[in-house]
Specification:
Number of helices: 9
Number of strands: 22
Shape: flat
Number of domains: 5
Distance between the termini: 100 Å
CATH superfamily of the largest domain: membrane protein fhac
Strand content: over 45%
Structural class: alpha+beta
Amino acid sequence: MKGTWVAAIRGYVWVKLIGGDARAFLNAAVSERIALWNIAYSREGELTFGVTVPDFFRLRPLLKRSGARTRILQKRGLPFQAARLARRKTFAAGMLAFAALLFVLSTFVWQVKVAGESAIPENVVLQAARQEGVFPFQWSLKMKDTAVLARRMAARLPDAAWVGVEKKGTTVIITVVDSTKPEAKPLVGPSDIIAKADAVVTRIVAESGRPLVERNERVKRGQVLVSGWLGEGELRKAVVSKGTVRGLVWHEMRIVSPLVREQKTLTGASKERSYWVVGNRALQISGYGGEPFAESRTGSAIYPWKILSWTLPFGIMKEKELEVRTVRDELTEDQAKEAGLRQAREELLAKCGPDARITSENILHEHKENGKVMMTVLFEVDQSIGVERPIVQSPAG
C-alpha cells in the first residue's frame, strides 16, 4: 500500500512497536483486517511498519492485549501537509502568489528558436522576426497570427522558399526552408593525373587523357600517370584527365602498445539530485551530501512545467550520478602486440581511403620497454595513388 494515492490522501504514519509480544500484535492486526505494510525489524530488534491514520486509531485495543506501545516516527500524506500549511498562512499565500505569477509569465514569449537547415544566418532570421514583433519578453497577445507572421517574414527573407512560425507555450519556433538554386558546378580546366606517393602500379584505367605508365611499373611521387595532352603538333589539345590508378604503397609505422590497460566501468551504484530550474539557473532541492563517489559520470534531464499546451520557463532537473570504477587489465606480450597492430591497421586504412586494403605487413623491429611493446612495422597497401594537377602551361614545341 506504500506510495498509493489512497494512502497519501488519507494520511499515513510510520510506527515503531515498543515492548510487548510483536507476534501476537501482528496476528491480532490480521484478524482485525488492519492493513500494515513494510513490516520490518529495526537494528534494536523493534518492529516498524506503516499504517493509515484511520487504522492507527484502531490499534489501541490490540496494543493493550499484546502489552506493547507505539512511537510515531514519521507523518506523511495530505492531512498533515494541510495542517502544516494552515499553521504557515504566509507560505500558503506565497504559493498562491507563485501560481499566479506563473500564469502571468506564461503569457509572454521567453524564447525564439530558428529551426531547419538553412543557409540564411540565424541573426538575419531573428532580425526579421523582431521587425514583425516576435522577440523574447514580448506579450503573446500582441503578436499577430502565426500564418500572417510567416507570410510577412517570407517577404523579408528573399532567399527563403518557405517560412513557418509555430508557437509552443512560451517558445516561438521559426522554420526556414531555402529556395532551390542551381548547383554551382566548379570550373574544370585541363589537368594531368600524377602519383601522390612512390608506388608500383597495380591497375590503370584512363577514361580520358593518355596513360603514360603500365601495370607493374614503379613510379615516383609527382610523376605523371595520365597525361591531359592529346594529339600531335598543331592538333595537340589539353583535356581533363579522368581515370583510376591504383598501386602498392609502403607505409612504415611506429607502434607503441601498453601491457597494462585501464578501462572505466559502471558499478551500478548511483545517486540522484533534483533542482528547481528557472530560465538558465538551477537551485538544488534534494540529494545533498557532497560527492559520494571517488569517480563518477553524471547525466541530467530537464522536465519543464506545462499549462495545457504552454511550456513554462520553469521546471525540474533530475541529475543522476553513476559510480565509475577503473579496471586494470594486464595483457601478455602477444596480446599487446596484436592490439597495437589492429589499431595501426584501422588508422592506416582510414588514412588511405575506404577502398584501400593491406596486402602484407612486416615487423622490422620489436622490443619491450617501460611496460610497453614497441614495434616498427612496414605495411604494403593497395590504394588509389592518382591525384589531379592542373595544366598551367603548354608543353614546349
